[in-house]
Amino acid sequence: MKSIYDFQIKSKEEFEIVQDKSKKYPEVFWSEVAGAFKWNSVWDKVLESDWTIPRTKWFINGKLNITENCLDVHAKSTPDKLAILWEPNDPNADSQRITYEELLSKVCKFSNGLKSLGVKKGDRICLYMPMVPELTVAVLACARIGAIHSVVFAGFSSKALSARINDSKCRVLITADGAFRGNKIIDLKSICDDALLSCPSIEKTVVFERTLKKIKWNPKTDIRWDDLIQNMSEDCLPTIMDSEDMLFILYTSGSTGKPKGMVHTCGGYMVYTAYSFLNVFQYSPGDIYWCTADIGWITGHSYMIYGPLLAGATTLHFEGIPSYPNWDRFWNICEKYKVNQFYTAPTAIRSLAKHPKELISKYDLNSLKVLGSVGEPINEEAWHWYDENIGKNKLPIADTWWQTETGGILISSLAGVTDQKPTFATQALPGIVPELVDKKGEVLKDKSAEGILTITAPWPSIARTIYGNHERYKEVYFSAFPGKYFPGDGALRDTKGNYRITGRVDDVVIVSGHNLGTAPIENSINEHPGVAESAVVGFPHEIKGNALMAYVILYDFNLKTESLKDEIRTLISNSIGPIAKPDKILFVSGLPKTRSGKIMRRILRKLANNEFNDLGDVSTLLNPEVVEEIKGQF
Ligand code: WT7
Fold this sequence. Notes:
Elements: H1 12-24, H2 26-34, E1 45-50, E2 55-60, E3 63-64, H3 66-77, E4 82-87, E5 96-99, H4 100-116, E6 124-128, H5 133-145, E7 148-151, H6 158-167, E8 172-176, E9 179-181, E10 184-186, H7 188-196, E11 204-208, E12 222-224, H8 225-229, E13 241-242, E14 246-252, E15 260-265, H9 266-281, E16 288-291, H10 298-310, E17 314-318, H11 329-337, E18 341-344, H12 346-353, H13 358-361, E19 370-374, H14 380-390, E20 397-400, E21 434-437, E22 449-455, E23 465-466, H15 470-478, E24 489-493, E25 499-504, E26 508-511, E27 514-517, H16 518-526, E28 531-541, E29 545-554, H17 562-575, E30 584-588, H18 601-608, H19 624-633
Parallel strand pairs: 4-17, 6-7, 6-8, 7-14, 8-11, 11-12, 16-17, 16-18, 18-19, 19-20, 29-30
Antiparallel strand pairs: 1-2, 3-13, 4-5, 9-10, 14-15, 15-23, 21-22, 22-24, 24-25, 26-27, 28-29
Helix pairs in contact: 1-2, 3-4, 3-10, 4-5, 6-7, 9-10, 12-14
This protein binds 5'-O-[(S)-butoxy(hydroxy)phosphoryl]adenosine.
Residues 252, 297-299, 374-377, 399-404, 425, 487-489, 501, 504, 510, 515 line the site of 5'-O-[(S)-butoxy(hydroxy)phosphoryl]adenosine.
């Protein structure tokens, strides 16, 4: 049997051969890669795909459990190898080093605990946890018994949490008393208590004790993590899953109000995350790999848990934030653990770049071999700062473009193997076929072109549906350009076929790497009794990449006060989370609208960006005087 490492591409020539083969014979190509995993029974057909329905199925009738490939396989061959290195928020507290054998036992124990609560295959389990190893244990325990995990980032508000729990009718909530975040403590349990006032599907809440602060306790439904696992066996047979059974749901925000529960399935997701992890980061056995994301996002799922563990890698998880106790924490951790691959976001890079270089030079960063970036376009300045100061002008930088929906990285250089180019994500990975189109869907055939990015061929880790709403899945991703996947991003291509992602082409704004739909923010602003209407747009921000600006129409214009702005911010914070609070709120008497009543967001974006002289065609506006009024307010 081949190992997944046999599919790690080592040279540019090999990349070209593999890319060519994967395009010509995708089914042969992916079935060979899939052969590197342990299956309980092999698929009888590699692919069934029809994007007019839309439907995508990979490794049909294959049977497996992803945790056997993440854990049992390595616990058998390399039991003492470190799976997870955990660095706590407090640099003086104890870190943890968890081997593959230990991780397997922890996962089995918790799996048995979940079973004792009556959890079975197909049940949805919500996880709202700090970045502790128990979060990874809980994720894998769900996967082990075929329960579907839905991790909700622990920065979301109680309302956002209950909306996600209710959308997929989760039976169990797994949380903690609290989370340490820099010098703050976040009372997760009380946020859960609030959320659960409106979540009838939740039967039990498992509480991991992290902060040991006093919390409210509901003896009928709350169970301590330690009590749940106390008498549980360290063995738990994995539940055999079909390739196309659901593995997890992860919510992402979209252009309209409700969050979208993206559904990922077992077989294809396993094959693609492991393959892309090894190829993009060029991980070698023994390396220490560190991704600074939170497990609450797809980056955490695919490249902190599944991808690395499938490859038998050592993955470092950090509980804290880059500024605590000082802005040198990241470099301190890189030195402490001799990190080899370091994967972070442009917004973090821009914040770090604001601080004195002595905070970096204090540390020995010679272990670093590969740098990565994810979450938003990386601007020229941030790219060069990263290259010079962290990469010392000699390390490859993989700028990885992908989404919650794609499950894994689709466009990126393979670190040190294929060419890189500042601010360009560069080339599609093997098996990925990008195409640029114009607004009408005409394919842009010139080598060098700028337009809308689409993907024309199925890949194994594409999300299969939106939980409970296949129609919306079709509408959002497959109807703009029939037969093609539409990610919502614009891109340009150079003459060598390198792609640079230019940003969203829909009403989603990426703020500090967080994907925020403007519609849900507008909905929560409109909940204020004094607000008649609002429109939220993004504008460029030095550190966050983009920030939000809200234009708000009040019923009574005389009420425009700073305290009303605070009330609006609080409303948003309560309904979504602090990350969605606008930087600027402007009270206006009207919004620029077309004759058919549609808000001209293009104009609002330009105004927010101070591009007063470049508003484009305003002749179709019903109320051009509003534009003049808004200009006067800046
Ligand atoms: C959106 C997806 C991918 C995991 C984290 C975000 C933007 C992501 C890049 C990049 C330019 C990027 C896109 C994409 N994005 N990576 N390297 N260059 N833009 O996942 O929350 O689903 O957001 O993030 O706009 O569509 P997500």
